[in-house]
Design a protein that fits this description.
This protein is an alpha/beta fold and 185 residues long. It contains 7 helices and 4 strands. It has a 4-stranded parallel β-sheet with strand order 2-1-3-4, with helices on both faces. The model has no long low-confidence stretch (mean pLDDT 77).
Length: 185
């Protein structure tokens, strides 16, 4: 994004918004280098992914944005994480004997396939889920159903008896009141 590949994004959002997004990238880089581990968001997310993958055996992560504008976000995360972490050799040429990264997949939760929600809710596989939503001032009365799936997956309780399961499926909710370019970075 911050190389020549980002030119199309800069044209689409404009140079000022693009610069603001790059400033957001820089702020997160500084946070990563300077924040203590217990408050370091990239470190905590990385450790959670490592724990889910290597200790709990969760081999995939569902990314379920509840925002149509984020419909390509799962594909972006696939490129970001799986290309870099999908190696089976160390830099020294030795084969690894541990999971190098989960499979990221998903689509917007607003129109996601009932079939994979059924597997996540009631199946036997542990599939951690990342839910994302951007709220705007134009949505003062958001429907309660926006996070029903996330609540059911994380707590194990649905609105109907047949939706109940063991819970603790592992889910992260990211909710932003707005998403200007700076926060997207």
């Amino acid at each position: 994004m911050d190389s020549a590949i980002g030119l199309s994004t800069m044209i689409a959002v404009g140079p000022d918004n693009f610069r603001s997004m790059l400033d957001g990238f820089h702020e997160m880089d500084v946070h990563f280098r300077t924040a203590p581990f217990e408050r370091n968001l990239p470190v905590l997310m990385g450790l959670l992914a490592l724990y889910n993958n290597n200790f709990l055996g969760a081999q995939s992560v569902a990314v379920l944005p509840y925002e149509q504008y984020l419909k390509r976000f799962p594909a972006y995360l696939q490129q970001l994480t799986m290309e870099s972490n999908g190696k089976h050799m160390t830099l020294d040429g030795a084969r690894v004997d541990y999971g190098t990264g989960p499979i990221y997949w998903g689509e917007p939760g607003t129109n996601g396939q009932h079939s994979f929600y059924q597997l996540i809710h009631q199946g036997t596989r542990l599939i951690p889920c990342d839910f994302g939503r951007v709220y705007t001032a134009a949505e003062p009365n958001r429907p309660a159903s926006r996070h029903t799936s996330g609540q059911c997956i994380c707590s194990g309780r649905g609105t109907r008896v047949w939706q109940n399961h063991a819970g603790s499926r592992g889910g992260r909710h990211t909710c932003l009141a707005r998403a200007p370019p700076h926060l997207r970075g």
